[in-house]
From TrEMBL:
InterPro entries to which the protein is assigned, alphabetical: EF-hand-dom_pair, EF_Hand_1_Ca_BS, EF_hand_dom
Keyword Plastid listed: no
Residues in the signal sequence: none
Key words, A-Z: Calcium
Region (Disordered): 221-257
Top-rank lineage group of the source organism: Eukaryota
Descriptive protein name: EF-hand domain-containing protein
Length: 336
């Protein structure tokens, strides 16, 4: 038979004067071990409603480095590599179909005739050879635009106008044009524009005639009986009998003085005939005339007309030495 249980000092103390549970080494181990059974008497913190309430500390804001922030925003990270290892730039993207369609539509809406009218043939003849960079006698679209800008001004033509003129010069879709093609296209376009203008003028004149013709026809078809009779005017003598008209005194007639009657002018021939030619010749010294004749000959022809002859006599013999009739009588006597 087993003997009575042996009491440890702890259990003995409890047995004597304490009501606390007896904690043996086995009991202590059992009390401190976590409960694995759902039927355990101890609360389990694995269940959410059994967890003690704890205040959560706020999370501090995230501080990113500049490199990380640039990567998040999509910006390129500054490279620390050598210039030879830097990423090359992206390749050029070809224009979309919408951009090409818009350019073609803008070129199709240009008045080609008005653009050709601003281009002078003489200017183009000198500028065409200068713009031909490769010396092939043809200009592509870029060389053609540079030629127009250099010869006629930077802002004279838009890109759509240059493209429309270039397309008019090469309707078959060629990539370059010659000077002959340009001049031929200009003459063709200007001729077509002139024909269209004349046709539009004839059309406008026809429309005006159609609007005017009914009015003229209606006016012609109006019988004379339907026209209002002309107003009957009173005779002039009855105007003085009407009391509502004030009496007017007759206006005085302005009389201009008659020009004075002048005696008829004496005929030049009569005065010449009355001159004593012998007396005039007697006053002319031959030695004096010999010296003055050469000086009075203004044209060097060896002869004097009537003006030169009169000037010679007045210079040699005095300003008032002879009258015009005497000079003319002597001149007529010298050349009958």
């Amino acid at each position: 038979a087993a003997g009575p249980p042996q009491l440890t000092p702890v259990s003995a103390a409890v047995a004597v004067g304490s009501s606390a549970p007896i904690l043996t080494p086995v009991n202590v181990a059992v009390a401190t071990a976590p409960a694995t059974s759902p039927c355990s008497s101890h609360p389990s913190y694995d269940e959410p409603h059994m967890r003690p309430h704890m205040s959560r500390a706020q999370t501090p804001p995230l501080v990113m480095s500049p490199e990380l922030a640039a990567q998040v925003r999509g910006a390129p990270i500054p490279s620390t590599l050598s210039p030879a290892m830097v990423t090359p730039p992206p390749m050029a993207v070809a224009p979309s179909e919408g951009t090409v369609a818009a350019a073609v539509m803008a070129a199709s809406s240009v008045d080609v005739a008005s653009v050709f009218a601003k281009i002078d043939d003489a200017t183009i003849l000198g500028a065409f050879s200068d713009a031909d960079a490769d010396g092939g006698g043809e200009l592509d679209i870029e060389e053609f635009g540079e030629m127009l800008s250099s010869s006629l001004g930077e802002d004279t033509f838009t890109d759509a106008e240059v493209l429309s003129v270039f397309d008019a010069c090469c309707p078959d879709g060629a990539e370059a044009i010659t000077l002959n093609q340009f001049l031929t296209a200009k003459r063709r376009v200007m001729k077509q524009a002139t024909a269209l203008l004349k046709a539009q003028m004839r059309k406008d004149a026809s429309a005006i005639q159609q609007r005017v013709s009914p009015l003229e026809a209606a006016h012609v078809r109006t019988p004379p009986a339907m026209l209002p009779p002309p107003p009957v005017l009173p005779p002039p003598e009855s105007a003085a009998k009407r009391p509502f008209l004030p009496e007017q005194s007759p206006s005085p007639v302005l009389s201009l003085p008659s020009p004075p009657v002048l005696p008829p002018p004496e005929s030049v021939l009569a005065r010449v005939a009355a001159v004593d030619v012998a007396a005039v010749f007697a006053r002319i010294d031959e030695a004096t005339i010999l010296r003055a004749f050469a000086d009075a000959e203004a044209d060097g022809g060896g002869g004097l007309d009537v003006d030169e002859f009169g000037s010679m006599l007045r210079v040699v013999l005095g300003l008032n030495a002879f009258t015009d009739a005497e000079v003319l009588s002597v001149f007529d006597a010298c050349c009958p």
